[in-house]
Amino acid sequence: MNRRGPLNRLIGVAHELSVLTRFRRAHWPRLFADILLFRVMRVVRLPREDGARTVQMRDGTWLTYRLNRGDIQAIREIWLDEVYMPPPEATPVRQVVDLGANIGFTSLYLFGRLHAPYIVAVEPDPANVSILRRNLDQNRVPAIVIDAAVGPFDGHASFRRDRASNLGQLDAEGDMRVRVMSMASVVDYLPNPAAKTLLKLDIEGGEEQLFTGDLSWLHRFDCLLAEFHPDRADLERITRLIDTSGLRSRPGGGRGEPPPCWVRADSAGQLDPDG
Predict the structure, then answer these.
(1) Taking 70 as the threshold, does the pLDDT of residue 4 lie above it?
(2) H or E segment to which residue 55 belongs
(3) Checking CA distances to 76, which of 67, 105, 247, 255 falls within 20 to 30 Å?
(4) What is the value of pTM for the model shown?
């Protein structure tokens, strides 16, 4: 009998449950149950899906999320795997733009790590925006929320929602219309053109269209943390465009290390301009 499958699943559950140590003990039962239900929801629809719950981390941060595979996955990705851990070069960052902000966990995480006094969170799904605002408000994070998708133009487009809250995307056959905002319009919300600014990008394949046309906005950013989707976007083309903007690829991804990202050579004086 092949026991590798069940063993791997057990190891996966144990890893996911290890995030409990980041939270106050009083909230462990709720999180424990929801992490187990995360796997159940893969095969069945539960009667109380999308019900909201609020828990507190040991550092005092309050997190509101829903009984939703996307929300629960975000707890692990942001607070356990730390997929958006900023590199040391991002220490001087004073502004953050969070594209695909979902329910705000990345904005909260980066605020806690960088203490940036200004955050712009961009999210098109109204249901996500409601939780996003709640998370930012209850933690007194200085942020402006833009309820829009980001793209190469200002206007409107069709958006396809997904049962998992973090998988919605612009789609010509989508079931709802959302506002689309260009990056030129987004950066207009930044109060200080000279301040070091970090861009986090996770827009479910929308990067293919975002990286077309005028890309002068790339020069406004000193650090780029991105999750690209090579099944929906030409990663080689996008990488080449980022490199020509003066942002330099920074390797990483080891345990306890920042993930691969891009930083501007002069953003903290810590990069060797000769590589």
Answers:
(1) no
(2) strand 52-56
(3) 247
(4) 0.91
Length of the chain: 275
Residue 179 has φ and ψ, to the nearest 5°, of: -75, 145
Tokens of 65: 């999320």
Distance of CA 227 to the CA centre of its chain: 8
- pLDDT tens, position by position, 41-56: 999 999 889 999 999 9
64 and 192, same structural domain? no
Secondary structure letter of residue 57 according to DSSP: B
Phi, psi of 248 (to 5 degrees): -115, 135
Q: Are residues 268 and 201 in the same domain?
A: yes
**Are 229 and 106 part of one and the same domain?**
yes
Q: State which of 28, 52, 81 marks the end of a domain.
A: 81
The CATH number assigned to the domain holding 197 equals: 3.40.50.150
Contact 219, 247 (CB under 8 A): no
| Domain range enclosing 89 | 82-275
C-alpha–C-alpha distance, residues 152 and 238, integer Å: 14
Compute the distance between CA of residue 100 and CA of residue 102 in angstroms, rounded to an integer. Answer: 6
pLDDT of residue 1: 46
Domain count, the chain: 2
Tens digits of residue pLDDT in 242-260: 999 999 999 987 677 899 9
Plot region of 30 (φ>0 → left; ψ -120 to 50 → alpha; else → beta): alpha
